[in-house]
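Lab notebook, bench 4. The sequencing result for the construct came back, and we need a structural model before the next group meeting so we can plan mutations. Quick request posted to the team channel:

Model the 3D structure of this chain.
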Amino acid sequence: MAIMITVALFFIAALFEISGGYLVWQWLKEKKSWTLGLLGGIILFLYGIIPTFQPAPFGRVYATYGGIFIVSSIIWGAMIDKKMPDKYELIGALITLVGALIIFYAPR
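Done. Here's the predicted structure in token form:
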């Protein structure tokens, strides 16, 4: 159960970081309303809180999160930007995900 909670926290953090960043991107890069930028900033602030619920030291949490973020970004790209990943993106994401899981879940 603890593993499911930590994995869920990683993916929730990724959703918040990517969606918040996407809204700021829309505001600045695509010239959308400033309210999107403000909402994106609030979501990014909340993203910063989520990792504090992880039961590991900061460095280990953020190193693991990096792998989860890569996988989540590729999923976002496929679902939101309609850009299907190529085989090298998938291979790279798999490698980083395996590394992230080793970093966080290896017995110590």
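The mean pLDDT is 96.
Will bring this to the meeting.
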